[in-house]
Amino acid sequence: MGKLQSKFRRRSDLYKVKEGADTALVPQVVQYEPAHTDAINCVVSLTSDLCVSGGHDQAVVVYDWRAGKLCKSFQGHSREITKLCCLKGSSFIFSASRDKTVLMWDLGRDTEPVQEFCGHELVVNGVAVSPDGTKLCTGSRDNSMSLWDIESGECLQRNTISRNLVTHVCWVPGSTSIVQTSEDKTIRVWDSRTWQVTNTFPAKQYIQTHCDISSNCYHLLSSSNGFGGQGCEATLWDLRQPGCKVAEYRGHLQTTACCVFVPPRPGCPALVASSSYDSSVKIWDQNTAACLYTLTLDGSGPLVSLAPCDSSSLLCASFNTGLHQLHLDQGAVPSLAEVARF
């Protein structure tokens, strides 16, 4: 595959933040029961109180982050969990894995998977559920994107594109469009009805690691890998004019692993959050691209996933120190502080 790489070295000493980053002074961080026994790869919000996470210990964990207690742990994958997604308003959870499968879980039932989606030839790095809850989209390092019927587990469509090593997948809310990022440095928009690519964004200089869609579906965020401050940016795109770059958020020193839109608060500017292998989380003004705050989580290693829970709460997954609950103050001068770990 030439120079395309997907496996990042896990030595935490490679990801130390250099001088220049702001460090929040936190009175005391509450330590809850750990959700996992090893590095965490992903975290998503299930309800206003519950999150779902997965990682190297192969467990899919549902955790009440407000109460600080583990609710349920699902075991079924034979290798690490790579990505997760949830069907909003339901108890369904979908987990993608390096074991080449996606499993479906129901929080309201026992700990056995209720559906299995098999067919990819390499690690599954992208999973997204349709707005109506009937279809599932998956993307893999085998260069393919697949569409599945959730009820039957049947693969309805598959499309393989050379060098399209999928890194993340998002289903645009309320539409038939799907956005995916790739190790070939491009972003593709798919039509779920024809299972064809309708738009391809201009290639970036570095691998695209993650993507997110704004709540009004006007904008797309993507993030880049990199090192030494080269690459490492998040990019804001206009989905109404595919390929139109609106802003870039630069300041991380290592790979920007995740970027998300912060749920808006009335009267406050629109915000974007990003997390990086440099052990920092940054808050940005969406429109001006100004970095408003940097929180460094010393010793955490790579910060690989963010899950906004509400306009003042973010969850962050790390390689070394578990899950972090962060409080975002969207005042005149936004600030971010760690309040709990689990």
UniProtKB/TrEMBL annotation:
Repeat recorded as keyword: yes
InterPro entries reported in the protein's UniProt record: WD40/YVTN_repeat-like_dom_sf, WD40_PAC1, WD40_repeat_CS, WD40_repeat_dom_sf, WD40_rpt, WDR31
Protein origin, superkingdom: Eukaryota
Membrane-spanning segments: none
Keywords: Repeat, WD repeat
WD repeat windows: 74-107, 117-158, 166-200, 249-294
PROSITE patterns reported for this sequence: WD_REPEATS_1 (PS00678), WD_REPEATS_2 (PS50082), WD_REPEATS_REGION (PS50294)
First and last residue of the signal peptide: none
PANTHER family: SPERMATID WD-REPEAT PROTEIN, WD REPEAT-CONTAINING PROTEIN 31
UniProt-recorded name of the protein: WD repeat-containing protein 31
Species per Swiss-Prot/TrEMBL record: Anabarilius grahami
Lineage: Eukaryota, Metazoa, Chordata, Craniata, Vertebrata
